[in-house]
Amino acid sequence: MKYKLSMFNYHLKYNNGEATNSYVFNSLSRKLVKVNEYNNSLIDSLDESLIQPLSKIGIIVEADCDEIEQLETIITQKKYEQRRLMMTIIPTNACNFRCIYCYQSENDCFMDESTKISLMKWLDKNLRFYNEMSLSWFGGEPLLCKDLILEILKEVKMLCKKHKVAMISSITTNGYLLNNDTFQKLVANGMLFYQITLDGNESIHNLQRPHKTESDSYTTIINNLEMISRLPRNIRFEVGLRINLSGLMERKEVYKFIDYIAQIFNTDKRFVIIWQWVRDWGGKRIQKYDVKKIVGESNACIAYMEYAKNKGLKNVDLISTTTGTDSCEAFFRNGYVINYDGNVYKCAMCIEDKKNNCIGYISKSGEMIIDLSKERKWLKREYIEEKCKKCIYLPMCIMNRCHYSSKIHGKTKCIEYKDLIESQIISMIVQHKYLDIYRR
Questions:
Q1: Which string of b and e fits 395-432 if b means at least 16 CB within 10 Å?
Q2: Backbone φ and ψ of 334, nearest 5°
Q3: Is 172 helix (H, G, I), strand (E, B) or coil?
């Protein structure tokens, strides 16, 4: 059988201080391999024992393989994955913060008991159709409803046990209400993943993410995080500390902030840093400021990521190079966002667009009533422009894209993390997360 090099391969040479080696990263499989050389002679030099491992991770493909067609097939299979339920619950759209770049409006509504009961009825009827459930929490600030969250977590945990379904839970929270008692109760009931935002040091964080009524949101969050870090290492969880870089931040102050958090978290691998940059996500609040001064740039992340790594901190993989699980509920057939009022949406980021985003509701009897014509808009075939079909980043781009923009508004754009990809691959090399095909 004849083979060719994949069109989705990214090749780079890296010097580890002792020698320069060649590495190939495949953007479809998200796998990395070390090779002696990278050209057509690579295939000619392969013996039978190497063809299978390289073919398995997509570095080489059969000579007559249509890789665009193959990609479309894989995407469709992922989209209609039948055995995994992805659900985000928004227990409230209320928030105790008034972040300057927030896109959400200010309506304080909360999930009531009848909506919770209806949701539990639906889960009890339908969990048996799945092998696993990914349960996320979003807001507003979801921990304003921490008692309700704990109630639902406990009930879902029992239902998953009843139906033999594996469950993991995550939450996006500002961390202000995440005290010791709340955190340990959440972890005990299966909430293992947390995203908490700290926008730099005290002055810049309190400027960008002010509490609604208190003058200092930063100190409370830091104290909560330090408390969490003191918990025994055998307690499993992961906290992603998200840092939103903005044009208001001075570079030297960011480095000082990295030094500070490294003192607290560099020995605790349960904490990872999520580097992001502030964009104009819409809404009225950011328009009150000079938007150009607030919005940051992705390339600023590279230097900070390297500095943080050298300080012993773990950076999260922004492009999911090791997992490939980089799409939200909006992409998946079995992906739902349950709002506080029982309405069912596809995207948690644009709840206010009820016309396009709300695809149904959960009835009092525990039935999910879906408007199939609305749902089809979200599930239609991924559009690949001709100019994109020769891009090595296409598999990552098509999974990372905003499905609200592409499906509802017909707008697609290049992956925002292009300039971070090489640094992520180098990180994989340094951590030896690659296959050395010549090592026996």
A1: bbbbbbbbbbebbbeeebeebbbeebbebbbbbbbeee
A2: -95, 40
A3: strand
CB atoms within 10 A of CB 79: 18
Decide: 178 and 241 in contact? Cβ < 8 Å. no
Alpha-carbon span 306 to 315, nearest angstrom? 9
The DSSP 8-state label assigned to residue 59 in this structure reads S
- Would you say 71 and 26 are in contact if contact means Cβ atoms under 8 Å apart? no
Q: How many CB atoms neighbour CB 183 within 10 A?
A: 23
Let me know the angle formed at the C-alpha of 402 by 400 and 406, rounded to the nearest 5 degrees.
120
Q: What is the pLDDT along the chain (440 residues), one digit of tens a residue?
A: 888 999 999 999 999 888 899 999 999 999 999 987 777 666 776 777 788 888 999 999 999 999 999 999 999 998 998 899 999 999 999 999 999 999 888 789 999 999 999 999 999 999 999 999 999 999 999 999 999 999 999 999 999 999 999 999 999 999 999 999 999 999 999 999 999 999 999 999 999 999 999 999 999 999 999 999 999 999 999 999 999 999 899 999 999 999 999 999 999 999 999 998 888 888 888 888 878 788 887 777 888 998 999 999 998 876 655 544 467 899 999 999 999 999 999 999 999 999 999 999 999 999 999 999 999 999 998 888 898 999 999 998 888 888 898 999 888 888 777 878 888 898 889 888 898 876 64
CB-based contact 23:33 (threshold 8 Å): yes
Distance CA 238, CA 202 (A): 23
Give the pair of three-digit tokens for residue 138.
């979003």
Write the CB contacts of 109 (distance below 8 Å, at least 6 apart in sequence).
92, 93, 94, 340, 341
Half-sphere exposure of 300 (CA within 13 A, CB side): 19
Whether 224 contacts 203, CB under 8 Å: no
> Whole-angstrom Cα distance, residue 308 to residue 254?
10
218-248 burial code (b ≥16 CB/10 A, e <16): bebbbebbeebeeeeeeeebebbbbbbbbeb
Amino acid at the residue 347: C
Query: Within 13 Å, how many C-alpha atoms sit on residue 17's CB side?
Result: 2
0.70 exceeded by pTM: yes
Q: Which residue, 6, 21, 13, is CA-closest to 59?
A: 6
User: Does residue 249 contact residue 297 with C-beta atoms inside 8 Å?
Assistant: no
Q: Where are the beta strands (DSSP E) in 301-396?
A: 314-315, 335-338, 343-345, 358-362, 368-370
Residue 5 and residue 9: Cα distance in Å, rounded? 8
